[in-house]
Amino acid sequence: MGYEKDFPMQQIVDKDGFLILEDYKDKITRDLVLTFYRHLIRVRTFDRKAKNLQRQGRIGTYAMFEGQEGAQVGSAMALKENDWMYPTYRDHAASITFGHSLPTILAYWKGRVEGGVPPKGKHIVPPSVPIATQLPLAAGTAMAEKYKGTNNAVICYFGDGATSEGDFHEGMNFASVFKAPVVFFNQNNSYAISVPIEKQMNSKTIAQKSAAYAIPGVRIDGNDIFVVYFETLKALERARNGHGPTLIEAVTWRYGAHTTADDPTKYRNQEESEKRREFDPVTRVEKFMKNYGYWDDEWVENQKQLVEEEINQAVIEMEAMPSPNVSDLFDHIFAEPTWTIQEQKNAYLTHLRGEASCNH
Amino acid sequence: MQSLTLIQAITDGMRTMLRERDEVLVLGEDVGKNGGVFRATDGLQEEFGESRVIDTPLSEAGIIGSSVGMAMNGLLPIAEIQFMGFIYPAYEQIMTHATRMRYRTMGAYSVPLVIRAPYGAGVRAPEIHSDSTEALFTHMPGIKVVCPSTPYDAKGLLISAIEDPDPVLFMESLRLYRSVRGEVPEGKYSVEIGKGVKRKEGEDITLIGWGAMMPVLEKAAMEAEKKLISCEIIDLRTLYPIDKDIIAESVQKTGRCVIVHEAHATGGLGNDIISIINDTSFLYMKAPIQRVTGADVHVPFFALEDHYLPTPDRVMEAIEKAIYF
Question: What radius of gyration, in Å, describes the C-alpha atoms of chain B?
């Protein structure tokens, strides 16, 4: 039963921002650290802004990711331009980092189908909603890359609750059998809405589930963006080199509710969340920057201001979107609408124009 | 022209498209080395290799889910589900992803996927091997459903399904697999999805069916002829989108209609056909439309399957009910 020993939680930078693995000293460039920091404050500011927009009724239900930024930014930064990303509804920090547009993400949460459209030239699949269903898709997309003989890889996000679903197994097994170039990136935040991980599984780690598929499994501190980035990079390299999938378990924490529609105090003591701030992924990079001489008040202030402006601009753009086009209700079901859809569309548009025909 | 059984025509359709386009792959349980439990993929792995004709793990959600992921990434997968009664683990993948990806991305991604599934009762198969649950899928937005009854249509519709930019569920009557034979052209041709076909001209009543029910309709029509009732027979071939025009044109001529399917009555496709007749031809009808269908019971253990399936006798009764209304 020594699975925790077999899959120890790896760190590169500790909670106080000190490098604990000297091997990485040369790999951690100034540019990398500043890029981490810029992305981290960008997505955190975005997340808080989006939550406020929901409170003000300017977008719909929203799934906050605060606390999980290290896992999402670090893993997304490891991707290459032509890779594929399969995020869930809590992974927009990852999709933003990979290049999704902020107004599009906001549009998604405003209930606009435009929010599912990937940015031009980037493979970002719309957030997966039914839990774990994206794993078999990611395996298939990776199998297709392999079939085409490219070096592209796929990253697939999912949470701890997803590991209880059959699709988790089916996706992992397919990827393993066909040596598909995919990285299964688990964010273990210990809660599936209200259900704690002890009630979700008897296994002590998620990484150990890799053993069943004979693929590498890695357990990392998901709030240490350094280990997230470098371990994802390694897993992607393995995938690109034909060595198949990897399961990464990034241990993290969501400070807030599952979404703006639930109240976490009903199922857990939120003091725990406050204590977890000690391990915060953003402040850890701040501490690192201060510890190693990368901190520059002026640069940081400047970055914060740029991020603030960018996000405010995104909100303006989202709110300036023209009203939803009723045609979009009908037009994207098939490449060419079937006669039933065409008739229904015509009838509804006629109704909207107040021209419903009446023979009497 | 070659003379092929329905299943040989399906194999020929796959072979034709595997030859034509490198993006076409076949995957499923036992489709490779074994050539499929019904031999529908016989010889394909030998000809096209293991990277194109893929034996997968025993995992319907995995087969369909991975096929969706492939289709989004430029391939044209033909996924085999061994029996329609085993498709349900994949139902979520079809409902959630295969049929929705185009809508959810406003066309940035599409899913040109063909799902082949043998369906239907009447061959003394073990339980749950005989389901006919097309209505679960015709109800689902974003997927077309076809069901050929002749070798010619099987190959032509399969080729159309493979070339269709959206998901198509391709239902194969296992009862017809080897019991029908017909002329099938070599090479590529297509039968348009969404078009039914008139199998027999008639004056007094329209019989509508598809797949395994076609021989039942033909027998019933022969019986009816003996009683001087002239039946027109329509083979729908596509179950979504249904060929509205061929139905309307026929019932406006005959004024009477019997719809036959082996699926359960409630929520069955017969009801949609009645709606089409209601919308297009209400004032032409001389009698209530009759349905001969499976009851709202599970497809039974095979000892009772003959009592479940529509028979020429039951169809004949329905014809007379409509004629003598």
Answer: 19
- Topology of domain B2-184, CATH: Rossmann fold (3.40.50)
Here the tokens at position A335 are: 């490449």
Q: Which residues of B touch A116 (CB under 8 A)?
A: 104-106
Look at strands A217-221 and B53-55 and give their pairing: unpaired
Question: pLDDT tens digit string along A308-356?
Answer: 999 999 999 999 999 999 999 999 999 999 999 999 999 999 999 997 6
Cβ–Cβ < 8 Å for B91, B143: no
DSSP, residue by residue, B292-312? EEE-SSPPPPGGGHHHHS--H
Q: What is the 3-state secondary structure (H, E, C) of A261-299?
A: CCCHHHCCCHHHHHHHHHHCHHHHHHHHHHHCCCCCHHH
Do A138 and B69 count as a contact with CB atoms less than 8 A apart?
yes
DSSP annotation of A19 reads B
The CA dihedral of A126, A132, A137, A143, to the nearest 10 degrees, is 130
**From CA B6, how far away is CA B182, in angstroms rounded?**
8
Domain range annotation of chain B: 2-184, 197-323
Contacts of B139 (CB under 8 A, 6+ apart): B267
pLDDT tens-digit map of A130-187:
999 999 999 999 999 999 999 999 999 999 999 999 999 999 999 999 999 999 999 9
Interface of B with A (CB under 8 A): 25, 51, 54, 56-57, 59, 61-62, 64-75, 77, 89, 92-93, 96-97, 101-110, 141-142, 144, 165-166, 194, 240-241, 244
Note the pLDDT tens digit of each residue in B22-58. Answer: 999 999 999 999 999 999 999 999 999 999 999 999 9
Asked whether B166 and B112 are in contact (CB, 8 A), the reply is yes
A-chain CB neighbours of B196 within 8 Å are none
3-state secondary structure of B263: strand
Q: Which residues of A286-325 are buried (b: 16+ CB within 10 A; e: fewer)?
A: bbbbeebebeeeeebeebeeebeeebeebbeebeeeeeee
**Fold match flag (B2-184 vs B197-323):** yes
Instruction: Give the Å distances, CA to CA, from B183 to B19, B151, B180, B282.
Output: 21, 7, 11, 38
- For B197-323, CATH gives 3.40.50.920
Question: What is the β-pairing status of strands A84-86 and A154-159?
Answer: parallel
Which of A147, A166, A333 is nearest residue B75 as measured by Cβ atoms?
A147
B221 contacts B187 by C-beta, under 8 angstroms: no
Amino acid at A60: G
A137 with B65: Cβ contact below 8 A: yes
> How far is residue B120's CA from residue B50's CA, in Å, rounded to a whole number?
30
Residue B89 gets which letter from DSSP?
G
Q: Do the Cβ atoms of A276 and A67 come closer than 8 Å?
A: yes
**A139 to B65: CB separation less than 8 angstroms, yes or no:** yes
- Looking at the DSSP bridge assignments, the partners of residue B5 are B181
Domains of chain A: 3-323 (3.40.50.970), 325-360 (no CATH)
Distance from CA of A29 to the nearest CA of B (A): 35
CA distance B70 to B89: 19
CB B69 to CB A116 under 8 A? no
Q: What is the pTM of this model?
A: 0.97
